[in-house]
Amino acid sequence: MNKRKLFKKLRRQHKIQHKPTYIEQMKHYYHLFSHYMTIKFLINNVLESDRLLQKKQLPQDLPTLLLPDDIQNIIFKRVNKLYPKGNTRGDRLWNKYSEALPKLDKLLRSYREYLENEYGMWAYISAPFAADLAHFIGPKDRALEVMAGNGYVSKGLRDHGVHVYCTDSLAWTKQNETGKHLVTNVEKLDALSAFRKYQDKIKYIIMSWSPDGVPVDWQLLQAVRKSGRDIPMIVIGEKNGATNSKQFWQHAHFIQNDAVKKLNRHHQSFDLMHDHVYLIK
After folding, report:
1. Residue 13: exposed, middle, or buried by beta-carbon count in 10 A (0-12, 13-18, 19+)?
2. Which GO MF term does the entry hold, naming one (predicted)?
3. Nearest to 206 by CA among 165, 266, 263
């Protein structure tokens, strides 16, 4: 065997198969389950959300990305209507659906993970939520966003004319996608330095998804209190869960009113994560 034939043979043997991306898989299941509106609705929301994020635009709100509990029964009944019992084509179709459902379920549940890996988006910031937050802050007051990541919150506020100082240490760029997909200008400052620089100019501090177990949030809250300034913190996170430090949640003073409730209208959980918007002093 000459060298050329040997090379071709080895290349065929070691050919790397293309692994479908998350979105490619979603599009495949969209067509596979084209007769099931509840499934198409969920997948379409994911695809539209991703389409907007690709354009560096804030996405829409998401429904809960979980398949209905009775979806297998719905599919089974439809297959039985199309094919008589024991029909091989019907059996193959049912098996195809049965094999696909757990995979689709896993994909839907892991959309947040996809957002983190693809866009460095940790808190899901939708356009309607950004509009509510902009209304809460108002056009005359200024805000400081710390640990802004790629700047999704600040982008939404700036789109509505809010003056916001957007800052992040950008120290995580080597570990994940934070800082690699900036959607607005982000000033390189850690949280404490940002507060010291802008404390005289702001009415609010915005902190979204502060890292779990890292006490920088508690250090910042102490710095705000020691400054003697009345600067509430708008915090997006999962209380005593996947975000922030224990010290922060233990020592936070929560402000509860109708305005804060309205901030959560468009910040609803779409998966097993239950983060909320809090006003804290």
Report:
1. exposed
2. methyltransferase activity
3. 165
* Displacement of CA 246 from its chain's centroid (Å): 23
**Strand, coil or helix: 179:** coil
Place of tokens 């009415």: 203
The answer to whether 22 and 115 have CB atoms below 8 angstroms apart is no
Per-residue pLDDT reduced to its tens digit, 212-251? 999 999 999 999 999 999 999 999 999 999 999 999 999 9
Alpha-carbon span 30 to 155, nearest angstrom = 31
Q: What is the pLDDT of residues 61-78, one digit of tens each?
A: 999 999 999 999 999 999
Q: Tokens at residue 208, please?
A: 């979204």
Residue 178 above 90 pLDDT?
Answer: no
276-280 and 233-237 strand pairing = antiparallel
Query: Is-contact 29 104, C-beta < 8 A?
Result: yes
Superfamily (CATH H level) for 127-280? Vaccinia Virus protein VP39 (3.40.50.150)
Q: Is 18 helix (H, G, I), strand (E, B) or coil?
A: coil
Q: What is the pTM of this model?
A: 0.89
